[in-house]
Amino acid sequence: MATAREIRRRIKSIRNIAQITRALEAVSASKVRRAQDQALATRAYARLAWEVLAHLASQPAADGKLHPLLEVRPQVKTVGIVLLTSDRGLCGAFNYNIVRATMFFANQLYKPVKLITVGRKGRELMWRRHYDIVAEFSNLPASPGILDIAPIARTAIERYRSGEFDEVYLAYTNFVNMLQQTPFLQRLLPLRPAELKDQAASKYITGAQPERLKVTEYIYEPSPQVILDKILPRFTELQIYQAVLESFASEHSARMAAMRNATENASTLIDDLTITYNKARQQGITSELLDIAGGAEALQASMRQEAR
Fold it and tell me: Is 162 annotated as catalytic?
């Protein structure tokens, strides 16, 4: 059994750890609120952008050859996956869940898979499993803007247009609420406006009905082709940007929950160690009393022998 001093040191160490986890929980609580507000604020723009894209792609002159990002290739040889994880740990199973879902998805494809990782944790986990990582991004700002996401989208678009990728998927964690975050993998490229349920945008573009938009024909200036050249890359950026915001909100929620659990476990452990410490101290006091009583008894026996 550990001594009272050792138990007291453990209690002090665990109490210090509990203070750190409590502070991290408070920080994550403030960050998840901002990230959630950002994610909700961009959903209306995403929905309207999708409707404009569906209008353009459904025009009589607009077919699958208008823009390379609308082209559905008959044979898929290589699949690219944009994997969104965090740069830091201490967020429970957040990173492991999306990495595990990505690995399962990649194994079901039976095709070569190349990764574009966003976040150090995803890069480290996939590199250890010998996946082909063609690009890596990390250290995004706490409140990212569309310019921070542009290099990621540009990398995915360029590799798709060059033929290195025949399809591109987006792997991210969708923010449902503070207690639930769900990993998702959905198609990023090619864009298929008429198939919203399979697109990466489907989780946060609500209310868009592209199939109803084919009824009305509009006249666009200068032309649907020129407008698509501008809109399609930007909408691809928007999908990644929204996924990053969802991932950030999920990360902070997972970290907040993990730190809360760690703080509660630390409190429980401190209570158990306090009981053990009291028992050890009581045992030490009892031993000292027995030693004193034994010494007094021995002294009295010695005095009786001398009196005889």
Answer: no
